[in-house]
Design goal:
Length: 601
Amino acid sequence: MFRTHDCNALRKSDIGQQVTLAGWVNVTRDHGGVIFIDLRDREGLTQVVFRPEENAELAREAHTLRSEDVIQVSGRVAARLPGTENPNLASGDIEIIPSKLRILNRADTLPFPIDTEPQNEDLRMTHRYLDLRRPRLSRNLQVRHRVAKATRDYLDSQGFVEVETPILSKSTPEGARDFLVPSRIMPGKFYALPQAPQQYKQLLMVAGVEKYFQIARCFRDEDLRADRQPEFTQIDIEASFVTPDDIFAVTEGMLAAIFKAAFNVDIKTPFDRLTYREAVSRYGSDKPDRRFGMELVDLGEIFRESSFKVFRGVLDAGSVVKAINAKGFAGITIGQVDELTEIAKLHGAKGLAFIKIENGEWKSPIVKFFSDAEKAALKSKLQIEEGDCVFFGADKWEIACEVLGRLRLRIAEIQELHGRARPEPAPRGEGAPDWDFLWVTDFPLFEWSPEENKWNAMHHPFTRPKAEDMPLFDAKKFPDVRAEAYDVVLNGVEIGGGSMRIHEPQLQEKMFEVLGITAEDRQSQFGHLLHALRLGAPPHGGIALGLDRLVMLICGEQSIRDVMAFPKNNRGIDLMTQSPSEVDPRQLRDLSLKLAKDKKT
RNA sequence: GGAGCCUUAGCUCAAUUGGCUAGAGCGCCGCCCUGUCACGGCGGAGGUUGCGGGUUCGAGCCCCGUAGGCUCCGCCA
């Protein structure tokens, strides 16, 4: 037996016991005579004391110990000398007086210190196994496990069955770029790694599974971000004979179970709901962060008859004038104005108009165009006070909302209005950050793609239109057709989304038609699904939640890389294994593949 | 595909205006130290300033290029 206890197990009540511990040397404090070793395992720290007068040979050996050496010590649990207890350590009342020391493995000089927050992510990734030893990442992995287990337990309790679906699957033209896997047996043909188990889970509904879930790995060959990896994990859920309310209820129950398991906190259910239209109008985003105000206010009423030509012209053209009031932001610097203007232009605005309220004065080049009545109306509608700064967006609804929404988030960031990143999870229940859950519903069914000059499905091509919007669909008023689709948002981050699916073959055909998929392509790419819909497909719908993002938020991390064991960097490279890598020409020959051009040398 | 920031010792960072024999803390090595918990003290080793050009009497610093890292936009049904 390697050990009798872990390094966070021994307390006052164990004094006098003979124990054996094993772990890593966290730190050594060598006084020449007495030597202290903090022994660490994943559970915590225990202090080991070597005294030359008790065992000179052991002390001599202990003197050679360095950080991250792996050792085993056997000895007696002793009370610390009065006054030397360490209240910062769970095991701080006791220490081990060893009678035996085994050095299981010595460690080289470390590439980076693991007892401080390392800055160089490159280095951390190259030695990820070392990085993961750090208590924070070790904790993140454990939280992730708790979340996954709570998910399985809850969904099982609700009658959901976990079914695995293929990783080697079929490429489809819709959506993200596929990762491809060449077939050896079928030269020239390729599997695709699934972007999501979407079609499989619908086919499982046709198969009569009724309630399916899977903690599923998904793959998308797109450019990366802090919260995007080429492979990531979804909690994938699908059920038959359900309405959106059923999906909402099971999702809320599951998230409640997850937060109970991870934090022992009770989150408030049911979640609030906002329509897409409302979310974008009020927050300039389809995933609003509602933990602070600064809502978008429509000023159409005020400027409808204005003599200020810019606003009047925008309104006359059917566009909108909106504003946000950044409370206490009149002290904005020139650099910040430039940055915000840059953001506004980047998202389609021509410029950025704003008013600073300083020393009782409205400072802005546009104020002189406002009448007294307009100023009074602005003041009451935006609740303008001394020290505020008001930003305007005058443009088409989509652009004005988007621009002000982006400004709102950036200003909040500058003012640190939303909860700061926490280095440690909040203590159980207490002082926990606000967990603002929200459903956003009634997404548009289609979005226009100017590049492709065609309609695309906003969610995916299997999403059903809202029943009351079917007349609009039939009348080809595509921009106005709403989908039976929804997202679940947590603190301004989209953590999941889903929809009711099309179960009627005729409607699915119509949908493909609008999306510009030829009858031939429909058969070759979706023939199996269309056929299945003809053989007794029940009404069904579901949702998928991004497990990585959810765990990231729960752990208070800024990047999903910090909640994945072995993530890739922002070019999709695993720095530890150096993958992707070149392969032996024979492997290519087996696959009937030839590289288009020789690699650059 | 585009933009921004970054790259100096194993790690984290300094280095006034272009003047330098490139420093500090941690780590490492050696010596000392018997109650620390980021132990302490003394000494030492460790650098082609990412790489390649250029300007200059002189470049870590200025210019051009290039590689790598991070963040964002596009993209991600």
